[in-house]
Write a structure and sequence with these properties.
The complex is a heterodimer of chains A (302) and B (254). Chain A has helices spanning 43-50, 72-76, 94-102, 112-119, 135-146, 165-181, 193-199, 217-223, 235-243, 267-276, 291-301, and strands at residues 3-14, 17-28, 32-37, 58-63, 66-67, 79-82, 153-157, 185-189, 202-207, 210-216, 226-232, 248-254, 257-262, 281-288. With 302 residues, chain A is of the alpha/beta class. In chain A, strands 6-7-8-3-9-10 form a 6-stranded mixed beta sheet, with helices on both faces. Chain B has one domain (3-251). With 254 residues, chain B is mostly helical. Classes of the chains: A alpha/beta (302), B mainly alpha (254). The interface between A and B is medium-sized, with 28 and 22 residues.
Chain lengths: 302, 254
């Protein structure tokens, strides 16, 4: 699969304050990248630089082999975006709103507007004025508008904001379906870490404008250390023994309950070692770091 | 016509404020035509009906529009069209659908300038209509009609330049209230410049020429020499405002 977007050394400053620095990533077609970060981390600025709404100070953005600097018109013709809070002409219907922007494209096929509204599940509301729409409906309408011109890359800035849990899941399913069926690449900024973990193929975490973690979601989560919750008999002696082991770290101890991080040892070996040291296990379970754990650890520590 | 210009024209056409304004303007023109012609009102307002009524009524009402009311109407409309759109994140939407920044601002400007011209035409139609309703065919004295039409054309030019200036202000300030504030300041300074005798300032002040045409040459033909200088200065202002809007739009971080 070809690279749809590559971003190198992106930098933006506002009045000597760094908003984004040295952000680099590349995405192949059909992938969904979750752009994560705390408020003010530089997510929206990054997305606005990619869509040319905001001038970058430094860096290179190439969209489907076209440099944004050299040929912005052609590069941006491959991008659809829904940034900020979804905004529309309030007095117009959903169909009229999409038609307004559809007219800006040459050779827009007849029926494309209704097809898009159908795709985002708004056929029934096509003739309803946008001012009567809920936020969730506006988010879906914004997605339909971003899909105009069949872009290869769609950028969505916090698309799940204001949606109820079911609405969030429906939206992310829609994004996944589009990525699979149409091979569209997505960059989605969000605070919904749990959903991002499930739906995104790639993750980029920004903190204070800098990229602190990026890669394939699976790889990121598999590389993280494992956490073991266990209850051991003779807690005092057990605590002494465990504190001397190099391969693990005791995160917390409350009576006989231990939370242990396995650093250079797998679970099987850890259990064998417990048994070899005659530590009696009453209960043991292992959990992996979630994206949220990882995000909190990285953003708090940075 | 470019699709984006068409989109903006429709957007302006959807503004309810326009219809409310012209309904009010028609009412004002109608009442003015019928009220000021009564002897009691002539005495009370200290006006000479022979001067402001009949063939001169369309010019009298034109001043009412281009002097203050029309400019304030334009500033409200254009701040809705630019600053409020910017605040609602609608301003940059065409940029996400293939439009360039310069193309976007050219479309905005052409739609707004055409709007300002149409509004001057509409005021002419309204004023001639109410004058006809009040005085009948008396208003159609050939030389007065020619003179008034020329003054409406000059007002159209002036309003186009003012429109370009308000657009530039909207783009620079990106704030409704700041734009309204600067326009009110302009209107005050405009009166000051016309009132004081500082020749250099008057020569370079865009509003001075309209004041000359409408007040100094009230109900009279404007000498061609003065016309050309005024048109030239206005054109320079128009080009400068457009150029400033274009330059600033290229640099906006949305």
């Amino acid at each position: 699969m070809g690279t749809i977007i590559s971003v190198e050394n992106l930098r933006k400053t506002y009045k000597n304050e760094i908003a984004v620095e040295n952000v680099c990533f590349a995405l192949s077609s059909g992938s969904i990248m979750g752009l994560l970060g705390t408020n003010g981390a530089g997510k929206t600025t990054t997305l606005k630089m990619i869509t040319n709404l905001c001038a970058k100070d430094k860096g290179e953005i190439v969209i489907d082999k076209v440099s944004l600097d050299r040929n912005p018109g052609l590069a941006l013709s491959k991008v659809g975006a829904a940034l900020d809070t979804p905004s529309f002409y309030q007095e117009l219907t959903a169909r009229e709103n999409i038609e307004c922007f559809a007219r800006l494209y040459e050779n827009m096929p007849d029926g494309q507007v209704m097809e898009l509204l159908d795709y985002v599940g708004l056929t029934g509301q096509a003739e309803k004025k946008v001012k009567k729409f809920s936020l969730g409906m506006k988010q879906r309408l914004a997605l339909a508008r971003a899909m105009l011109g069949q872009p290869k890359l769609i950028i969505l800035d916090e698309p799940a904001n204001g949606l109820d849990p079911q609405g969030q899941i429906n939206l992310y399913r829609l994004i996944c379906d589009m990525a699979k069926e149409r091979n569209t690449t997505f960059i989605v900024s969000s605070h919904q870490l749990h959903d991002m973990e499930k739906f995104c193929t790639d993750i980029l975490i920004l903190n204070k404008g800098k990229s602190i973690l990026q890669g394939k979601t699976e790889e990121i989560l598999s590389e993280t250390t494992n956490i073991v919750d266990c209850v051991l008999e003779e807690a005092g002696a057990a605590g002494d023994i465990l504190s001397r082991w190099q391969e693990i770290r005791v995160e917390s101890q409350r009576g006989s309950q231990f939370t242990i991080k396995l650093e250079n040892i797998c679970l099987d070996e850890f259990i064998k070692k417990l048994v070899a040291n005659r530590l009696h296990i009453r209960y043991l379970s292992m959990r992996k770091h979630s994206l949220q754990d990882l995000f909190l650890k990285l953003t708090e520590g940075a | 016509m470019e699709p984006l210009t068409r989109l903006y024209r429709k957007e302006i056409g959807r503004q309810k404020l326009i219809y409310i304004f012209f309904a009010c303007f028609f009412t004002a023109s109608f009442f003015y035509a019928f009220l000021i012609s009564t002897p009691q009102m002539e005495e009370m307002l200290n006006i000479n009906m022979g001067m402001v009524g009949r063939k001169n009524f369309p010019e009298f009402m034109m001043r009412f529009y281009v002097g203050t009311v029309g400019i304030l109407f334009h500033v409200f409309l254009l701040t809705l069209f630019i600053c409020e759109e910017d605040r609602n994140k609608m301003f940059y939407q065409p940029l996400l659908h293939g439009a360039s920044r310069s193309g976007m601002i050219r479309s905005k400007v052409s739609a707004a300038v055409l709007m300002s011209m149409i509004f001057v035409f509409l005021t002419a139609v309204i004023n001639y209509l109410t004058a006809f309703m009040r005085w009948g065919c008396e208003i159609f004295e050939w030389s007065a009609v020619i003179r008034t039409v020329i003054k409406y054309l000059l007002s159209g030019l002036y309003m186009a330049v003012i429109t370009l200036g308000i657009i530039a202000l909207c783009i620079y300030t990106r704030s409704t209230w700041k734009t309204i504030f600067f326009v009110v300041v302009y209107l005050l300074v405009d009166q000051f410049v016309y009132g004081v005798d500082i020749a250099f300032l008057q020569k370079i002040w865009v509003g001075y020429y309209l004041n000359r045409w409408t007040f100094t040459y009230e109900y009279q033909k404007v000498p061609p020499g003065e016309l050309l200088t005024g048109i030239f200065v206005m054109a320079l202002y128009g080009i400068a405002f457009f150029w400033l809007s274009l330059i600033r739009t290229q640099k906006i971080d949305f």
